[in-house]
Structures are given as structure tokens and as C-alpha cells.
Amino acid sequence: MHCPFCGSTQVQLHSVVCADGTKHIHVRHMGSIDGRLMQGSSYGTQYTALAQNCAAPAPPSPLPFMVALGFGGLVIYWGAIEHFPHINWKWFLGGLAVIGVAWLLLKSWIAEAKEYGAAKRRWQRTFFCYGCGQSHMKD
Ligand SMILES: [Zn+2]
After folding, report:
1. 105 to each of 75, 93, 97, 139, how far by Cα in Å?
2. What is the share, in percent, of the chain residues with pLDDT greater than 70?
3. Measuring CA to CA, which residue among 57, 56, 51, 52 is closest to residue 20?
4. Which terminus of the chain has fewer CB atoms gathered within 10 Å of its CB, N or C?
5. 45 exposed, middle or buried (CB, 10 Å; 0-12, 13-18, 19+)?
6. Parallel, antiparallel, or unpaired for β 135-137 and 36-47?
7. Ligand 1 centroid vs 2 CA: distance in angstroms?
8. How would you write 116-131 as a 3-class SS string?
9. Which residues contact 118 (CB under 8 A, 6 or more apart)?
């Protein structure tokens, strides 16, 4: 395994670089407030700059779509079912419009999820070179 830029053999997968640079920290605090001894602890995750640079792509969130769908469904419910057989058309059509927005959000989420899948596959094949600091992909 050689770096195509400088020929160094000091290359590692991005996933490995990221895992190496990620530290789970646990800090204990102790102090006194008004003469009483207080104790607490914090947990956290620390990334080195290199680990952040090599981090996996983030998956897109379906939350906006789900919120719009739920909200639209609720509005339709109030407009059409709650007072059945009297339909509140304003609410009903407003709810349909929100469902239409949810549909657009779903379509963009699917497109983002596809792009995320491709980005993730690229990431799994990407190596970082410690010799020159450049990343390259292996087929
Ligand atoms: Zn290199």
C-alpha cells in the first residue's frame, strides 16, 4: 500500500484514522460550595482535528418529512374526520398542502440518502497518508 502522491507506506483508512483520534473522556470535578464538598462528573467525546477531517459522512435526517407528514395528517383529521360529515374544506385543503410539502421533503431526503450511500462507500475506500497529509481513494 503506497501513497500515489509521495510513495509513503504510512497510509491508513479514514475509518481507522477517525477511530484512533476519537477519545471518550470522563472528567471528575470536585470543589466546595459554602463549605460543602461537591462532586460531579462530565462525559464527552473529543476528536482530534485529524479525526474530524477523516470522519464518516453524516446521514440525512428524515425528521422534517416526518414532522410535515404528521402535522398534515393532523390538520386533515381536524378538517375532515373530527366533524364528519361536515368537512372543513379550508383545513382539509390546508392539510393536503402540508402533505404535498411532506412529499417534496421525502423526495429530497431520498436523493440525499442516495448521495450519502455513495459518499459512505467512497469514505470506506479513502486512505489518509501521514507522509504528505493527502487523502486518496483505492478502487
Ligand atoms: Zn503521501
Report:
1. 18, 18, 13, 33
2. 99
3. 51
4. C
5. exposed
6. unpaired
7. 8
8. HHHHHHHHHCEEEECC
9. none
Identify residue 34 by its one-letter amino acid code.
D
pLDDT at residue 97 is higher than 80: yes
Separation of 119 CA from ligand 1 center, angstroms?
Answer: 22
If you measure from the C-alpha of residue 56 to the centroid of ligand 1, how many angstroms do you get, rounded to a whole number?
21
pTM metric for this prediction: 0.66
- 70-84 pLDDT, tens per residue? 999 999 999 888 877
Cα of 136 vs centre of ligand 1, distance in Å, is 9
9 Cα: distance to centroid of ligand 1 (angstroms)? 8
128: closest CA among 25, 24, 48, 44?
Answer: 48
